Amino acid sequence: MPRVIQLESLFVQGVDGVSKNSYSLNRRDWLLGSSAGLGAIACNAMLAADGLGGEHHAALAKRVIWIFCEGGPSHIDLLDPKPELNKLAGSPLPASFKEPITAMGEKGAPLLSAPRTWTAHGESGLMASEWIPNIGKCLDDIAVIRSCWTNGINHSGGVCQMNTCINVAGRPSLGAWVQYGLGSANENLPTFVVLCDNSGRPVNGPRNWGSGFMPASHQGVRIQGSEKESIPNLASPAELTPCRREEKMRLLETLNRSYANQYAHQTELEARIKSYELAFRLQAEAPEAIDLASETEETKELYGLNKKETQAFGKNCLMARRLVERGVRFVQLYHGTGSKWDAHSDIEKNHSRLCLEMDQPVAGLLTDLKRRGLLQDTLVVWGGEFGRTPMSEKGNGRDHNPTGFSMFMAGGGVKGGQVIGATDELGLYAIEDKMHVHDIHASILWLLGLDPMKLSYNNRGRLERPTINEGRFERKLIS
Q: What is the pTM assigned to this prediction?
């Protein structure tokens, strides 16, 4: 069943005596119809809270942590070794390859070597470069997808599509669809949370976690994870007494509701009202949820909180674990906020620094989730908006590569220790078991128990679906 419950309007004879429809209703019929309609509204609200309207098959995952490396990490330097690339370094792209359309690349640029040291890890023997040794130790729990592709050739389009399934603005983010489809598992915490690793602004800003044409209440809530005050203004000022605060909240509620009743179509105000209500409840539960002081020193070291390089992102990863174990359904962690992974020049310096910041916290998160029994039903997704080309840019950098790149998934029913798909011998194009962003989103939703073709929202008479009527679940993820 689609999530939307539609109620037909009942029109009765107006005060001017003009019939508003082709049939009339007596008072008894009108009361009966009205009571049934109100009951349906209440039923829809309860379905939204419990998430019963969007669940279509048994879920393998209950929650998602998406680690978004903004700017585009180089797959051929991290998870997809290409020895042929090193052999041909300095040469032009072979004639057998079609020159790709890239955002700002130098046409005819020579191939750039990937001088990585690759190590086979665990029982699976999966390969990881020396830039991500800690993630490498977790590869038996990871499914590496080497055949991703997207339509977004620049950061705005790429980030937009990886978040909303399309490379132009206007659609809900995946987190918003998950909140809409599954509802809340803890009414005292946001269902969809976003944390950035610095005070910067991701490309597209809040649009990345927006609700698009759905009610604004489904958008993500950004927490300033790496800042001193994670949730600004969470604690009331000392001079504001509980009685005074309650009086102010009642007045604000009265004014907001009065305005909302006049302009019911403006969902932003309804979302603001709900945010105030959530903020009130947050004051009771959020301080404990985001307080890392109660964690053991061993746990803090696991995430790298004892090192300057890993402290900021390690804190966010640890906070993500605390949030999901308290019922938050979708947590998105931005690393390299502000397209820091965008290595058009000096990729060696850029990626070595960013990998140092990211590798231990991500591995710590996977390890911690597993030992707490949370990894089995927590889906962890890692990747950026695209990869990077085997051709050079500015002599020692790489351009955007939307035609073939790597992501990985772990937990949430995913079979670890496997590689899905492949790129060509240079890492330029996905050639086997290709997974478009539509397929990635469809797979995440399926693992959560949601059928992307059944989960729908009525947008002005048109049933909209999260993957725009495209995308397939990649069954190799669980086989």
A: 0.83
